[in-house]
Amino acid sequence: MSESTQAFDYIIVGAGTAGCLLANRLSADPANRVLLIEAGGRDNYHWIHIPVGYLYCIDNPRTDWCFRTEPDPGLNGRTLIYPRGKTLGGCSSINGMLYIRGQSRDYDHWAEVTGENAWRWDNCLPDFTRHESHYRLDEGGDADNAHREYHGQGGEWRVEKQRLKWQVLDDFATAAVEAGIPRTRDFNRGDNEGVDYFEVNQRSGWRWNTAKAFLRTAEKRANLTLWHSTQVLGLILERGSETAPGGEVRCQGVRVEREGKEVVAQADREVILSAGAIGSPQLLQLSGIGPADLLAEHDIPLVADLPGVGENLQDHLQIRSIYKVKGGKTLNTMANSWVGKAKIGLEYVLKRSGPMSMAPSQLCAFTRSSDAYAHPNLEYHVQPLSLEAFGQPLHDYPAITASVCNLNPTSRGTVRIKSRDPRQAPAISPNYLSTPEDRQVAADSLRVTRRIAEQPAFAKYSPEEVKPGMAYQSNDDLARLAGDIGTTIFHPVGTARMGRDDDAMAVVDPHLRVRGVAGLRIVDASVMPTITSGNTNSPTLMIAEKAANWILTGE
């Protein structure tokens, strides 16, 4: 392959959730020459934009990296698909579209472990609202003063209510209230306890990904260059050059394969990794930044010994309980006939509503697994359908699925390269349920699900627990079954976490600059020290909003 060089001020690796926002913000000043690089193609696959299309985007090489985890002892030796978006918009093009920020305590904890007050909830809230377009505010709807305090209007990131209702879910919500979970109108005010339907990142029944929100307009700017379908091969790191005096290591740019040729892109100011919790640590390790023993194992020259690169992997493991019901309409009964499918398709074509507008989960609840917790440590994703596993057909009987996840797992996993080849997927080892605390929460969470299901509002459906089954009652049985039926809810974070200067496992400083390497910053979910108490897409956008300001002001 021949090699050529092109120069920019800023290079962003990854046109996903964070990368699209960064490209928009950094290129807003016409004096900044910005390059945005994406390994995947354009987001022109029709199933990206139809909400139910996530079924056809996940584990599809056109839109997904199609990662697999290593066999996991906590899952009784099972491996899982591990979806990560590979297209413009990244994971926001294939995810569940659910708008959840987490809890204020998440961000206050980040401030404590990093020593940076900018990460406190009160200081993060403006970064959430800056890009938000909340339907209650933008459409003059039923917004109360609290909505005006906690939400934004006129921004790029659209938040809407779902365009459907299911009686069986309404009754499950009432049962949750009967079980002691309060109703809420808003999960995003800092305390997300309660039950209600999720709000979603959609616009008029279409998925609203970050490529539409932040990139479409910015892409027209002369100072923003987009290279999609371009594989980054490695970072260019130099020591003791004119731009890195005194033996300092500096990131000068990236090497990429583009249209069959090797191209060098030079960054005069910064390279920003936004390749995600899997891609960013992989690229660091391939470039000589990471644990010294791992790099030595693959004969990669050590540039910066950062033992935290690829460590601290955290994810939300969902445990799916399935209840067969009687006398209630579910998607199983609607979609298991050609007539039903035709009606579903016609409703979407005419109204952009109904099952084709569905996010993967519709009803949400945040609650506690036991009285030992002072804050909600469980999140429910409840669906009016059931199936054996993702990608398999719906069951032929009416049923719902109540998935529950431990919001604050204590288990920690790893992401480690397997070779020097940037095209080979790394070894992803989440180590689910590897601590006694997580196994206890798993067992208790299944009991909470049962308590909700037995309440009068839902008992009228004569629910039968098909999975895991009422025969299993003990802590050991339920924890083992959680390993049998648990699966990722697609929230990997933490593999290049931020921290104080004296934190040996911190990969980046509180302003997300890579320790020991000038001109290199990481802006994606990998920098989270601990996982947020909810879905992780919108927190990643908040991180990018904050980082963009720091980059532009030289902080």
From TrEMBL:
Keywords per UniProt: FAD, Flavoprotein
Family annotation (Pfam families): GMC_oxred_C, GMC_oxred_N
Family: Belongs to the GMC oxidoreductase family.
Organism of derivation: Halomonas korlensis
SUPFAM superfamilies: FAD-linked reductases, C-terminal domain, FAD/NAD(P)-binding domain
Residue numbers binding FAD: 232
Protein's UniProt keywords contain Flavoprotein: yes
Ranges in coiled-coil conformation: none
Residue stretches making up the Glucose-methanol-choline oxidoreductase N-terminal domain: 276-290
Cofactor(s) recorded in Swiss-Prot or TrEMBL: FAD
Gene3D superfamilies per the UniProt record, alphabetical: FAD/NAD(P)-binding domain, Glucose Oxidase, domain 3
Keyword Signal: no
GO molecular function, one term: flavin adenine dinucleotide binding
UniProt name for this protein: Choline dehydrogenase
